[in-house]
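step: validate -> pass
step: tokenize input -> pass
step: predict -> running
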Amino acid sequence: MNTSKKRSQSFSHSCIFSHEALLILGLTISEDCLYLNVFTPHATRLDSKLAVMVYIHGGGFCMGSPPDDMASVVASFYDVIFVGIQYRLGILGFLNIPGSEITGNLGLRDQIEALKWVKSNIASFGGDPSRVTIFGESAGAVSASLLMLIPQAKNLFHRVIAQSGAADSVHTLCKVQDKIPASTFLGYLNCSLGDHLQCLRTKSQEEILSAQFKLMSSATSGDLWVLISPTVDGDFLTDVPRNLLRKKQFQGVPSIFGINANEGSVVPTMMFTQVPLSMYTQEFFKGFIFASKNIPEGENDAIKAAILHYYTNYSVPRTPEVVRQQFMDMFGDKFATAPAILNLQSLAEAGVPGNFYVFAHRSKYSIWPDYAGVNHADELPYILGTTFKSPPTLPLTTGFTEMEKGLSKFMMKLWTNFAKYG
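step: predict -> pass
step: emit ->
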């Protein structure tokens, strides 16, 4: 571990991720990225012992960065210490090759190292190491929830807030036994299994990013995503989340899990942006469900048929708009609603306090089409205080009304009060 002093006069680079996302977010990237940002209220003293909120950013485990100066709003308005952390992303953070020394989950290990640093050092910033809340959105929420299941993270935090994600949200989170995904990725780099480690070390950042882009763009990317997200490695994550939750093998701390009203809107607005509206047919919907390999109970056509029946709207003609809504309803339940409920049920059965919320306010100046409603990530500006930045630093809306600024204050108060008092 490097213990040398570093003069910090600007924010660090973000961890490496795709250039396409960089164009959207306007960030710079580097392998030298494992830093964290600490924001304190103006009058903080060493003996203040303020509650600490550690934010884990989202981005599908393959992109993203912690908030920069916007985090000062939360800290200064509500007297908490705000810590934004970084972790390795994509291939560099989660590559795993069965039967080799590359076991994955480096990004999660980075998060734990950051929490260890907070525990050892946050008192020097006026923070209370016995009142640490971890919180995040999307992949950050999944991370916070997964950390409850990882023995190495025990006693590093005391409360959890998971926004639009939970441990069981990652459909690829499993014990990887098939070497085909790794072999496919290595092939993009003209490497092969066996000498993969030596070969990978010769590749540049640009080559790694190019291979990752090909991986994510592949027609079989549903299988290949196991290389760029958390997996069961037998040491760090010992089993799939739903099994660990059912066996009560988790750190039971007071928690908040929540969703936005239209989480599934992420499908047409952020994920399947190249899919034309005309593609949303009932046959496409049925084929998507029956091609899924993500049924927890195994390949069961009866369950898939039940899912198809449940989400099919029989009351109106199944136009492309109607089928698109079916996709959104199903996807929102799959990756956000159901995993959150599963986590909260497990906490309740263990006698641990848990809370659930639904964020249902659509921003007046939202960038999303009307059918998207309250989309994935739409709550972030209200919780991170970007409502008080001009122009907004999260490109989800072009501005905020005075009422929305009041809503933001209310939500920041709720989040920080939970961090302070539980």
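step: describe -> The two ends are 34 Å apart (CA to CA).
step: cleanup -> pass
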